[in-house]
Amino acid sequence: MQRLYDFIRRHPTGVDTFWAVVLLGFSLLWVVSAGTVGGSGLGYGLVALLFSLVVALRRRAPERMLLLAVALGLAQLALGLVPFLADFAMLVIIFTVAAHDGPRWASRLALIGGLGASTLSQLRWPMEGSDSGAAKVFFTIIMTVPFALAWVLGDSLRTRRAYFAQLEERASRLEQEREAQAKVAVAAERARIARELHDVVAHNVSVMVVQADGAAYVMDSSPETAKQALETISTTGRQALAEMRRLLGILRTGEHQEAGEYVPQPDVQQIEDLVEQVRGAGLTVDFAIEGSPRPLPSGVELTAYRIVQEALTNTRKHGGPDVGASVRLVYFDDGLGLLVEDDGRGAPQEMYEDGGADGRGHGLIGMRERVGMVGGTLDAGPRPGGGFRISALLPLKPAH
Fold this sequence. Notes:
Residues 164-191 form a coiled coil. One of its GO terms (cellular component) is membrane. InterPro entries: DUF7134, HATPase_C_sf, HATPase_dom, His_kinase_dom, Sensor_HK_TwoCompSys, Sig_transdc_His_kin_sub3_dim/P. The chain is of the alpha+beta class. Among the domains are: 2-125, no CATH class; 282-400, Heat Shock Protein 90, CATH 3.30.565. It contains twelve helices and five strands. It has a five-stranded mixed sheet, with helices on one face. Helix 10 links the parallel strand 1 (284-290) and strand 2. The longest helix has 86 residues, at 133-218. It starts with a helix and ends in a 5-residue tail after the last strand.
């Protein structure tokens, strides 16, 4: 049964042609059995043939077949050819045009043509027992019912198809919107991971380079100092690898991850360890906390850590020799304040704004993005008298 249904859907014209041949065959049998001969017989045969053509091509050219059917009906009235089996094609074409998603004039013409054909047919060939006026009206109404019903069924089918088409279009549009939102989310996540990788690599590699240069310089004169520098390089490298594993683990969703394989996300409590690490790399840093330390939202803690990390990395890169820095955390009732200053020569602010300290689009741009994500504000620029200053205020509640 399913195969038959699929065949009918794949070959609509072939199916219509089959029924057209059936209609033509039975119509010709009626013509022969009715004893119509001569000119009237040829007329009935030609009408039957053309009505069969209407059925065969009803889906390929519904408007044209409707006009042909109307013309055939008028010809029957003019020639006095009484309705016969072939006129069933009128019901078929009325249903088809009403169901077809075509011009509305065609659907209206189908309804008017059907009602007009039944009315004129009753007036031209009154049924037996319809001598009185009331009987004529009654039989006329009875004759119009099949045509009206065919049009109503076709129009209902067209409305239903349009409704389902709208549902499919809406579902397709929603799917496209979901895909677009997913792409935006992926792009945002990639940008976040890129910032994280930048902060990890820029800071830790900078420390490792400084320690490696120092170890090479004192290798002969102070082996113990060189050994300490190498140990710092090893520790810093392990920390960098651990953080990179954590970030790469985010990309491996769905894979099993061993417990303890990745380090926790950095937070405010680790800023002091960060300062100690920078001090071990040879940078003088003063660190102070004001207010009452307390747990903060994870996004605020990570942002605070990354800002301090980026600021100290830039100080080490561009501050020059004998540069000193200070880091101050201030706990307010409704937020966390950060202040990172140095007294070095610093890099031009345009370098940070236009492309970042690494020339690849990070620096202050990345800091502002981080701060903006938690609803905070950031101010950065040269200090009076030399050096660079970065201050940020991170609210405990995101801005709406």
